[in-house]
Structure formats: structure tokens, C-alpha cells
UniProtKB/TrEMBL annotation:
Protein name per its UniProtKB record: Ring-cleaving dioxygenase
Claim: Oxidoreductase is one of the keywords in the record: yes
Record CDD domains: PcpA_C_like
Stored PANTHER family: RING-CLEAVING DIOXYGENASE MHQA-RELATED, RING-CLEAVING DIOXYGENASE MHQE-RELATED
Keyword terms of this UniProt record: Dioxygenase, Oxidoreductase
Domain VOC: 7-132, 152-270
């Protein structure tokens, strides 16, 4: 069993509009845009990162906004819900705020004994804000007060045909089953970071998911550094998984592998961080390009949709 993985690092999804996506996560949810860069494999498309003040591991939601992309098809083999932690007692305030901003499918409820408010993002992606004790410092620069602001990820919920093989993988990754609620099975990393929960929902009644706007592309898990990442890579390959070579993503190093349930997992390093090429006071303001795409800057700045600060 692995001990290097501490919980979530980031979650990356697809969107249909850069400006709409940016407005939702900064103006509505109150997160900070910590990086404005481009897709390594499709540089004519943004890669936008939202999180706390510095984009700490376990707080960062990222998006590839492909203009006018069709919505994804909900189904099995994908992340059904991405959850963030909010302070205890703040879910009603959030429900009112979301409704006031015209957010769709807002509903309050309880899961595993915690109050939460669920809602849809601009492309139908499903989110929830879960009340809980969380010592992480929030970003409050976008008009959301400290006593309600999002602290970072709480969990991801995997929607799968069957839970057995995926649960076995999570246990190998250092997770333990910690509870069940209705059709959900909850796993957590003992002593992990504050974003150390993964839920599995079995849905044999659904067909396969189809990726599009609103779909989660991959879920990334956090390791301290490159040495720990290489240990994880070797262990996964010894277990029979097909794992990519280590890829430099400028702000972290990444490896990827496909899980038994069909969801793409990444293992990402906590180093070097999003302030490696920008001052912390100005994170996410300038367009930062990977070195291999720097020669395209003039064309990209004309092509990419303006999204403001």
C-alpha cells in the first residue's frame, strides 16, 4: 500500500466559454484565478486555474474552456460531483447567494451527517459546498466574506458501474473506507491533507459518460515532491497500471493513468507551485505560456477570448 499520496491536488474539467467560466469561479464562488495559461497540447485553448491565494494543493479547480463545446453526456466512468468545504453554518447563505446569481439546480441537504448545498455550474457540471471544520485560509478578494468563503476541496464523487476494483485501487493508494450513506461509499486518507476524501457511487442503471463541456477530464492526487512521485509511479507500474512518463506542467510534475472505473487519475507534485513565475500579489493576471509555445504569444493574444482580471 502506498503512503505518499495525501489527498487531492487539483481537478481539471472542460468548459464552453472562458469568460463565463472565469466569471462563475471568481465572481460567484469567490475563488482566486491563480494562473492564466494555455493547454499544453492545444495552445489555442486556455488553461485556467482557480483556488486560494497561492493555489495550494487541494484547492485548485482548473479548466480547459473549448469555445462553444457541446455539453458532456452524464453517465458512468466519470466524476459525478466535485465538493468544496465551507464553514459550518454557511450553507443557507450560499444557497441564497447562488440563487441570487441565477445558478441552476440549487438544493440543500445532508450527506454523511454534514449539511451541504448542491448546484450546477455553467456547463451542467455538478458541485456541492459541504459544511465542515477546516483550518485552511480562504481567499476573500472577490467579495465573499471569510466566515463563508470556500476553503478548498472536500472530495470528489466517482460515478461507476461497480465499486469493487476502484475501491481496491483507492485502498492501494492509501485510502481507507470510512463510511456509507445510501448508495455512496466514502474513502479517506488517514493523516492526509484537508482534501482527502473520495466517494464512489454505483450506478448500474446508467450508460457510459461522454466527455464534453461540464465533464471532469481528470482528478489529480498530491504527493510532496518528485522523489515521492517516482516511488508512486514505480509501484503503480509494478501493479500492472500503464503510467505515463513524468511530464513537466510548469507548476507541478505530473503522471497519468486510467483507473478500473474509467476515470483518468493524475499524481501531481506539490512543487514548485504557481508563484514560480509570478509575484503572489499578481497571480493569474498575465498570460503565462509554456516555453515551447512562447513563440506563439502574439497570435495567441489575438486569438484567445479576453477574460479580464
Amino acid at each position: 500500500m502506498l503512503s505518499q499520496i495525501k489527498g487531492l491536488h487539483h481537478v481539471t474539467s472542460l468548459a464552453s466559454s472562458a469568460s463565463g467560466n472565469n466569471a462563475f469561479f471568481t465572481d460567484v464562488l469567490g475563488l482566486r484565478r491563480v494562473k492564466k495559461t494555455v493547454n499544453f497540447d492545444a495552445p489555442d485553448v486556455y488553461h485556467l486555474y482557480y483556488g486560494d491565494e497561492v493555489g495550494s494543493p487541494g484547492t485548485v479547480m482548473t479548466y480547459f474552456p473549448f469555445p462553444h463545446a457541446a455539453r458532456g453526456r452524464r453517465g458512468i466512468g466519470e466524476v459525478g460531483t466535485t465538493r468544496f468545504t465551507i464553514p459550518v453554518g454557511s450553507s443557507n447563505s450560499w444557497a441564497e447567494r447562488l440563487a441570487a446569481h441565477g445558478v441552476e439546480a440549487v438544493e440543500t441537504g445532508e450527506l454523511f451527517g454534514a449539511r451541504q448545498v448542491g448546484f450546477d455550474g455553467p456547463d451542467g457540471d455538478r458541485f456541492a459546498l459541504v459544511e465542515g471544520e477546516d483550518d485552511r485560509a480562504p481567499w476573500t478578494g472577490n467579495g465573499v466574506s471569510e466566515d463563508t468563503a470556500i476553503r478548498g476541496f472536500h472530495s470528489v464523487e466517482l460515478r461507476l458501474k461497480e465499486a469493487g476494483a476502484q475501491g481496491e485501487l483507492l485502498r492501494y493508494m492509501g485510502y481507507e473506507e470510512v463510511g456509507r450513506d445510501g448508495g455512496l461509499i466514502r474513502y479517506a486518507v488517514p493523516g492526509g491533507n484537508e482534501a482527502n476524501v473520495v466517494d464512489i457511487e454505483e450506478r448500474s442503471d446508467l450508460g457510459p459518460a461522454g466527455q464534453g463541456a461540464g465533464s471532469v477530464h481528470h482528478v489529480a492526487f498530491a504527493v510532496e515532491n518528485r522523489a515521492r512521485q517516482l516511488e508512486v509511479r514505480e509501484a503503480l507500474m509494478d501493479t500492472g497500471f500503464q503510467v505515463t512518463p513524468v511530464i513537466d506542467r510548469d507548476y507541478f510534475w505530473a503522471i497519468y493513468f486510467r483507473t478500473p472505473g474509467g476515470v483518468l487519475f493524475e499524481v501531481a507534485t506539490n512543487e514548485p507551485g504557481f508563484d514560480r513565475d509570478e509575484d503572489r500579489d499578481h497571480l493569474g493576471e498575465a498570460l503565462k505560456l509554456p516555453s515551447q509555445h512562447e513563440h506563439l504569444r502574439s497570435a495567441l493574444e489575438k486569438h484567445l477570448e479576453p477574460i479580464g482580471q
